[in-house]
Structures are given as structure tokens and as C-alpha cells.
Amino acid sequence: MKKHPExxxxxxKRGFQMPHVFIILTIVMVIVWVVSFIVPSxxxxxxxxxxxxxxxxxxxxxxxxxxxxxxxxVFFQSFYQGIVGxxxxxxxxxxxxxxxxxxxxxxxxxxxxHKLIHAxxxxxxxxxxxxxxxFTLFGVLGxxxxxxxxxxxxxxxIMMAGYDRMTGAAAVLLGSCCGFACGMLNLFTTGVxxxxxxxxxxxxxxxxxxxxxxxxxxxxxxxxxxxxxxxKDPTKSLCYDEYKDQNAENALGEEIPMTWRHVVALIGFxxxxxxxxxxxxxxxxxxxxxxxxxxxYMIVLAVLFRIGxxxxxxxxxxxxxxxxxxxxxxxxxxxxxxxxxxxxxxxxLVYYMGNALNGKNAVITLLIVYLFxxxxxxxxxxxxxxxxxxxxILSPLGNMLHINQQVMVLxxxxxxxxxxxxxxxxxxxxxxxxxxxxxxxxxFAIKAIGTMMIAAYGLIVISHLIxxxxx
Length: 471
Known about the structure:
Layout: H1 5-15, H2 21-36, E1 42-43, E2 46-48, E3 55-57, E4 63-64, H3 72-85, H4 87-105, H5 108-119, H6 125-140, H7 148-160, H8 165-182, H9 187-197, H10 205-232, H11 240-243, H12 260-282, H13 287-304, H14 309-321, H15 324-343, H16 346-356, H17 362-376, H18 383-400, H19 405-417, H20 424-434, H21 438-465
Antiparallel strand pairs: 1-4, 2-3
């Protein structure tokens, strides 16, 4: 007799339950602790790079140092130090989410989403595509963590259209992934790397647009296939437990009439979003500038909807409270970096990679670099942090093997960018914001992002063969 799908799911649920995001990140920390006993401690000397104005490694100065062991007290202190070190990103997430909470409390989002749902009635898949395009654009502009406050909203919009939470998370995360990984306007990886090797900022954008197009199509095909599959057969949803009881029409409660105040609030939100993108790309804005913009917008909302100061603060606190767990997860992810520094093994791992490349031909070298950056990203999420360690080594290596410097930057960029949305240290936070468990996301993403990773290496090889420049 065939078992009912719900009975099967219940059995699986009792047999294994995915650990909380805090536990996942703690496991990564434990892995670093174990590795620290195996890998020798070592350091490169740091020098000031005149081109980029950043402190980078001198590739000719590596030396082993006395072994640094991570003692139990250092391990447990890293939880606190990680949170302190990640406070810039955490504060931006909490403040921006608090302001979005105020905006949601006015009913503007609900009214706007209801209008959008009615406009796409019968062609709800267009709403999925719109969200995917929007988050791809965020990624292209290098929003990175700056887009975190929008993740839950984007997921909810797609769920309102009758799709499951995984479809929403896929549109949000795959869009962010392909936009960020292509590196067209990514200050944190492409910008820093090109400065270090002496290339014009954001040069070679034409080929990166091709990379974006390839990633975009791959991601879109996976999303559309999954969305069609679960609408045809809901039991195939990776979030079936929730999806079987999901009521799209009531997800945002009773429909709210759109008023002129709601229209002004939504236009203001659009203006804030555009200013955030322009400020980050053209004006060099960082988190303090972004949060200041949102606080000004919150004051405008308070005046527009005549909300008293105490009530604004209460609504702000509720909005910020919803992302407290993801914010703390950012701190734990940063604790991994703290442990790597305490053990003095980051430079050693990069040094090992450099030695492994001796005597290899260009195509094999590019593969090793790509795979190393991909693997290293499991521990070190910071794209700019890895760039200042690795590019001073990769740049002269490229010169010796007649590999274009632009190709070396592209190889680093793609190795770093894609797995930000796959490995737990970077992605567990994103999953929490979207409301999906990491194991379910990994089951979906390993196929989509895995395909992008294979395509990425092909694009790297092609860039070398066509002498993608300038040097």
C-alpha cells in the first residue's frame, strides 16, 4: 500500500531535524578549531599598496611562526568578538529592518502588494520574474548585506502569488547570487581586486555582462522549473509542510485600500532604494550613510501618517526584533574569521595554494585558483578580505604564466561570489531572513548554483583564450 506523502514527510521530520542557524555556524567554528591543530601558523608581511590605498600581503615574505593554538577560552570568547567585529553589518540590518517595520505598519506594503497581485492575476509567474530581476539588480549594484532587509519582503510577495516559500527564497537568493557574482559594479571584490593589480576600476565590464547573462538564464530556468512543478504537484514542494496550509489570499490579512498617503510612502521607498544604490556605487557610501537615509525616511513616514514618537519607536522595535536572530548569526559567521586570525593559518593556506601552482599550465592554474577560492570561501566570507591576501600572490603568478590580470581578477571574483549563497557561513543568514532551513535551501541551490559554478569555469577558460583585457 502506498504511503500518503504527508505521512512520509512526518516520518522524515521526526527522524532528522535541521540544526538551528547558530548551531550550523558553531559547527563551522569547530571545524576551524580542528583545522588549526593541523595547519602550521604563518604570516606574510603587510605593506601599503599605493594604487589601492590598502594594506596587502608581500608575497615574498612568508614565514612560519610559533604555533598559535586556539585554547578553550579563546574559542568561547570568539562568539563575543565575532559579534563586535560584525556590528557594522548587524546595525545596518537592525536599523533598516526597523524602518521597514514602521513602513509595513502603515499598510502601504500590504496595499501595494495586493494591487500587484491583482494586476498579475492569472499570470502570477510574472511576479516571480519581477522579484528575480529586482534582486539581480541589487546584486549587480553590489548591495550584498545591504539587501538583507529586503529578503523577507521579496519572499512574502512571491508567497502571496500562490507559490511556496522556496520559490520566494530562490528568486531572492539566486537573483542576488548571479548579480553579485558577475562583479559588474561590485566594489567589495572586483573593485578591490582591480585596484590591487593596477587595473582601471570596473574595467572589462562587457565580458562581465556576458557572465551575468549566463548566470541569469541558468537561475531563471531553475526557478521557473521548480515553480511550475510545485504548482502542478504541491507535494513536490521542499516546504510542503507549510505550503499545504498556505493561504495566499490571507497572507497579508484583509485587503487594504490604497490611499494617497500609501502612494507617497511607496514612492518614497522607491526613492530611498534608488538613492541607496547610487550612493554605494557613485558616492562611496557605506552602512552609516545608508542607515542615516533610512532614519530620515522613517521621520517622513511619521509625519505623513501622523504617528506619535512613542508609537514610532514601538513599531521600529518590532521591525528590528524580527531580524535579531539573523543579526546575531552575522556575528557568529564573523567569529569564524576571528578564529582563523587567532590561529594564524589564513596566510598559511594561501601560501600552500601558491606553492601548489608552481609548474602548472595556465588552464590548470586557473582551475586550481578557482577551486581554492571556492573552498576558502567556506571559512572566509569577506570578499575584500580575501582579495587583499590573495591578489598580491595571484597577480605576479599571472604575469609568469602569461595569464591576463583581468582573467585572474575574474577567476577570483567567480570563486568568491557564487558560494556566498551556498556555503553556511555566508548563506545560513540569508536562509534565516527568507524563512527557509539551510538544508532545504542547499538541496535546491546545489543544482542551480552548482550549474553556475561549472559554467563559471568555462567562462574563465574562454576569457583566457580570448585574452580578456586589459592587462
